[in-house]
Specification:
The protein contains 13 helices and 13 strands. The mean pLDDT is 95.
Length: 348
């Protein structure tokens, strides 16, 4: 059924299709009885809870950052069987993002190219929305375990790299009461100069500051770093060394890639699309290799969340065998539909 629906949705521009889909999902989840029915249908089955950084995830399958940037659809997404949802990327000030069109489908490759540019409502509005979710939405969860919420944080486009630490600190402080864990995003290819913050000294300044602020709180939130799949071996080694040195709670592996090799889509069309991060099936093998490399170098001592090229239960099992504890989907959700968490979750 979803294949037919997907054909219809793919007639619309990607962002419009996303908004329409979420409108109908919100409508379907508007009453308590309908939510119970939807939860029952999409339930991936009872599983052993997974622990990372003191948090218990009810299953291994989560929704990656970028799908619900502004924490608008948490109730609806919790009905689809996800164990966690990562909101954001959130920046201190609201951003419109890059000019449209900025999201492109590559159906032949089961992939997307995006250059969204951290479009979001800003941390103050999103924190208020999360506060309302915590205080009201969870009371209407129909007796279900609470959904784990991650906060993916970044810097505003106009903020220089020298001042980037201020943006991350600002977002951290305002989201801290309302999210369960944090992911520091310095790996998006769509904010000019952002990936330069992946260099060891820049990273260390940001992460140690956030850890210091975290340690000042009564409740400490797990702090993770999201890395790019395009890092050199030396850069990955630097990230690993830093993560071990400062006892980071985990890594999200990985963001989108700027590579375009091996695509089935016509090269001229890919060239016309232009800049942006590629996600989806073409990233699967590269992502798995990176997971395996980090696992071997750290002997499995750093928790890893796999994000990239996950469409099926087999894909997810490949990631866990490579060392991932949890998996996240995004592009897979677009191509496989709302049953993806159920289908993957039942494999564990």
């Amino acid at each position: 059924m979803y294949k037919l629906l997907r054909q219809l949705l793919f007639l619309l521009p990607p962002e419009q299709a996303h908004q329409l889909s979420m409108f109908f999902l919100r409508l379907a989840c508007s009453t308590s009885p309908s939510r119970r029915l939807i939860r029952k249908f999409f339930d991936p089955g009872s599983q052993q809870p997974i622990q990372i950084g003191g948090l218990l995830f009810k299953n291994r399958v989560g929704l990656a950052a970028g799908f619900d940037k502004n924490a608008i659809h948490l109730r609806e997404l919790s009905c689809l069987g996800f164990g966690h949802v990562e909101i954001g990327t959130v920046t201190p000030q609201p951003q419109r993002g890059n000019e449209r069109p900025r999201l492109f489908r590559l159906p032949q490759d089961k992939a997307l190219i995006n250059r969204m540019g951290f479009n979001n409502d800003g941390v103050v509005t999103i924190a208020r929305r999360l506060k309302e979710w915590r205080e009201q939405g969870q009371k209407k969860s129909d007796g279900q375990p609470p959904l784990i919420i991650g906060g993916n944080i970044g810097k505003n486009k106009v903020t220089s790299n020298e001042e980037a630490w201020r943006d991350y600190e600002f977002c951290f402080e305002r989201l801290h009461p309302w999210v369960d864990y944090f992911v520091v995003n310095v790996s998006s290819p769509n904010t000019p100069g952002l990936r330069a913050l992946q260099e060891k000294e820049s990273l260390k300044k940001i992460l140690t500051l956030l850890q210091q602020r975290n340690n000042e709180k009564k409740i400490q939130r797990p702090l993770l770093l999201k890395i790019a799949p395009d890092l050199s071996s030396a850069q990955v080694d630097d990230v690993i060394a830093l993560a071990l040195e400062i006892k980071l709670d985990g890594l999200v592996v990985s963001n989108t890639t700027i590579e375009r090799s091996g695509l089935s889509t016509e090269a001229n069309r890919v060239s016309r699309i232009g800049a942006g991060g590629l996600s989806g099936a073409p990233l699967r093998e590269k992502n798995t290799e990176l997971l395996r490399y980090i696992t071997e170098r750290t002997r499995g001592s750093i928790p890893l969340i796999a994000s990239g090229g996950i469409f099926t239960a087999a894909d997810a099992l490949e990631k866990t065998k490579a060392g991932a504890t949890l998996v996240q989907v995004w592009t897979g959700f677009i191509y496989e539909g709302p049953v993806i968490a159920r289908n993957i979750g039942k494999a564990f």
